[in-house]
From TrEMBL:
It is found in: Cell membrane. It holds the Pfam family FecCD. The lineage of its organism: Bacteria, Bacillati, Actinomycetota, Actinomycetes, Streptosporangiales. Its main location: membrane. The chain crosses the membrane at residues 55-75, 108-125, 137-158, 164-183, 195-216, 243-265, 286-312, 324-343, 355-372. Keywords: Cell membrane, Membrane, Transmembrane, Transmembrane helix, Transport. Residues 14-41 are annotated as: Disordered. CDD domains: TM_ABC_iron-siderophores_like. It is a multi-pass membrane protein. This is Iron chelate uptake ABC transporter family permease subunit. It comes from Actinomadura vinacea. Belongs to the binding-protein-dependent transport system permease family. FecCD subfamily.
Amino acid sequence: MVGATPQQVVINVTEKTRPPAPAAADLTAPPGDRPRSGLPAGRLKAGRFQVGRPALLAGALGLLGLLCLLSIAVGSRQIPLDQVLRALTGPRDTEIGTIVWDARVPRTVLGLLAGAALGLGGAVMQALTRNPLADPGLLGVSAGAAFALMLAVGVAGMTSLYGYVWFAFAGALVATVAVYVLGGLGRGGQTPVKLALAGIAVTFLLESVTRGVSLIDPQVLNRYRFWASGSLAGQNSTTIMQVLPFLAVGAVLALSLAPALNNLALGDDVAASLGRRLRLIRLQGVVAVTLLTGAAVAVAGPIVFVGLVVPHAVRAVSGPDQRWLLPLAALLAPCLLLAADIAGRVVARPEEIDAGIVAAFLGAPFFIALVRRRRLAEL
């Protein structure tokens, strides 16, 4: 440069070689929408690969469809696949058609609905409480619904689903309130471990009382022993259609909470400053969890760990954005429940192991590993 001082030359060379400044992140967007690691919003980095959330959603749909076909094709009785396909498309009055349409198809649909309900319920509970151990089966919600159902069936003698399902909702709500009150006592207020311990204590208490009530009537005891293990068998399409409206309302409420839950993850003060009504959000979340858990327990029994394992697995691959986490949890939770049901039908042929037992066998190690983490921070 002609006429330039040495200091000006150094400054000009430094400005030419300096890398461009990174673009500023949009701090007004929810945490799940902000680009991470230089990737555009909606794409996550897994190892050397970039995984898009729409691709995860499509993969979850494909996996769920495959497991639905396996649930219909595989059972304690071996039936060739071509005969199963003919029964699905042909007449239903044959022996195989009766097995497929009256037993396996309702069982598969029930696994879809109950799994989606438990997955959504667990994801909403974890987001509302910012507690990684929140789960309808661990925090006493399922046990409360089961206890109220046993009172309705064993003491009041109710036999209609529309009669005793309201008891399930009431029991789930009362148990939820009791666990949160107990978990908030003492020094330090509510913590994830204290809530988990309170939920386990309430669950054991309610289960012991429920078993005591079931001993009054041997018929009720036999029904309770089958139902309490968490089974997808034994329900027909009429029962599924009766419980479907409650599950649909609960799912709509849960999915509509996704933007508000993103704001709530930033803290109560930030969410309130963004115009969120915190009491309304929590009330809507409690109603959604009560409907989803109560209806699922009413038809499938208390199934644990599905609502705990699936949201954590989804969060690991999709990020914390609830607008993606909730739909993915609603798709992958039925995958886990159907896989557990299929495994229970295959490993004990010609007998069966209930899906709730297999799901607990798969989820218990995950729960132990989660509790043993050195720093169990709130979400």
